[in-house]
Design a protein that fits this description.
By secondary structure, the chain is α/β, with parallel strands linked by helices. The protein is about 40% helix and about 15% strand. The chain has 2 domains: about 5-200 and about 380-390, 3-Layer(aba) Sandwich (Rossmann fold), CATH 3.40.50; about 215-375, Rossmann fold (3-Layer(aba) Sandwich), CATH 3.40.50.2000. The protein has a 7-stranded parallel β-sheet, with helices on both faces. Strands 10-9-8-11-12-13 form a 6-stranded parallel β-sheet, with helices on both faces. The longest helix has 18 residues, at about 60-80. One of its GO terms (molecular function) is glycosyltransferase activity.
Length: about 400
């Protein structure tokens, strides 16, 4: 029997109930006998039975900030001198200034006092300025890349992962594309493990008596440019021009809501497009159960749980070729993959799926549902993470 481990998971905030990826992972590790400690910057009410450790919160007042920082450092030096010294020395070897070395000790003080077998950063960006913390406390280091942190953040912050990629790290990624990218960065293939998202299949079952509305279309997404919603609306305007009536519901909130609503107005889609806002998981399931087509025309996407959920709920899925989506959907087998930023091509596929016979739809939705059941179950994901930490 393998040794039970103490695993530290670093996240920005306590996982919400809807964040099934982290929730299922934590519960699976706990059920296998491992101890999980959650390190967060923002501590919210949690439904998890887990130790949650919040990062130090500094004051806005400069004088208070200095006093509080000195108190944190003094306490850390008295109680955890070995890990403090090690982290400081490693940061110095990496060329960090004295100021940044001290800042590193302060912002990581809540982690440096722990003894762990593994320290796992839930997103690549969370490992920045913490590249040496795992080694300082004698733990193995793991980092997950999920999408934005891998594809977008480095574009805006060039060379941000230079120090990280020099460290001894085991990486978790969502897709083969991400794995290839890390190997190109010089990381040993053996240190990169693909574990795709998963869903609780018991939650996403459609009642046999439920009749789907033929031309009801849905998307679950943040209202953000990266989700390609403006291209989706342009494609749907072309569908409407062909005399096809439909209802398109967008589930989610975000900074681009006003811009997207204006696009709806300009594209003459006011009678077709509905913004439903943020919904709870049961409300999302209800919307999926009424719909027949799911669209995810993102410009960038790590993998997308919502597409898995839509397939499980027997919707015809049409997605862009953005990163993990082309692994989530097998083109023309379990759905359709269309090149991003091509609204005309996207519209053609939407029209094609609307005009499918019931038999043609059933062939694809059944293949999609079967693949989700076989490949993307929570149980399989948990077993993959148990192997990851061996």
């Amino acid at each position: 029997m393998s040794k039970k481990k103490k695993i530290g998971l670093v996240l920005a905030a306590t996982p919400a109930y809807s964040e099934t990826f982290f929730n299922s992972k934590i519960k699976g590790l706990q059920e296998a006998g491992h101890k999980v400690v959650l390190f967060v910057n923002s501590k919210n009410t949690s439904h998890l039975d887990i130790e949650i450790v919040k990062a130090p919160e500094l004051a806005n007042n400069k004088v208070k900030n200095i006093v509080l920082s000195l108190f944190i450092l003094l306490k850390l030096l008295l109680l955890n001198f070995a890990s403090v010294k090690k982290n400081y020395q490693l940061d110095k070897e990496d060329g960090l200034s004295f100021k940044k070395r001290v800042q590193s000790l302060i912002i990581n003080s809540h982690i440096l006092k722990y003894k762990l077998d593994w320290l796992h950063f839930g997103f690549g960006t969370l490992a920045l300025n913490r590249e040496n913390v795992a080694q300082a406390i004698g733990a193995k280091m793991a980092v997950s890349f999920r999408g934005f942190d891998h594809y977008v953040y480095p574009v805006k912050n060039l060379n941000c992962y230079t120090i990280l990629f020099k460290k001894e790290v085991k990486y978790h990624v969502l897709s083969d594309g991400m794995k290839k990218d890390l190997i190109l960065e010089g990381i040993d293939e053996k240190q990169v493990v693909k574990i795709t998202p998963a869903i609780d299949l018991s939650l996403f079952k459609i009642a046999e008596e439920r009749k789907k509305e033929r031309n009801r279309i849905v998307t679950i997404a943040r209202l953000h440019w990266i989700k390609g919603l403006e291209y989706t609306l342009q494609a749907l305007a072309l569908v409407k021009q062909k005399g096809i009536n439909f209802e398109y519901c967008i589930i989610g909130e975000g900074v681009d809501q006003e811009r997207l609503k204006f696009a709806v107005y300009q594209l003459n889609l006011q009678e077709n497009v509905f913004f439903l806002g943020k919904l709870n998981p049961m409300e999302v399931k209800e919307e999926l159960s009424k719909s027949s087509i799911y669209l995810q025309y993102s410009l960038q996407e790590g993998f997308c749980n919502a597409v898995l959920e839509a397939q499980a709920m027997e919707l015809l899925c049409i997605v862009s070729d953005a990163e993990g989506l082309s692994e989530n959907i097998l083109d023309e087998e379990t759905g359709f993959v269309v090149k991003k930023r091509k609204p005309e091509a996207f519209a053609r596929v939407i029209v094609q799926t609307i005009n499918f016979s019931d038999v043609e739809k059933k062939v694809i939705t059944a293949a999609a549902k079967n693949r989700v059941n076989e490949v993307f179950s929570v149980e399989k994901q948990i077993q993959s993470f148990l192997s990851f930490y061996k």
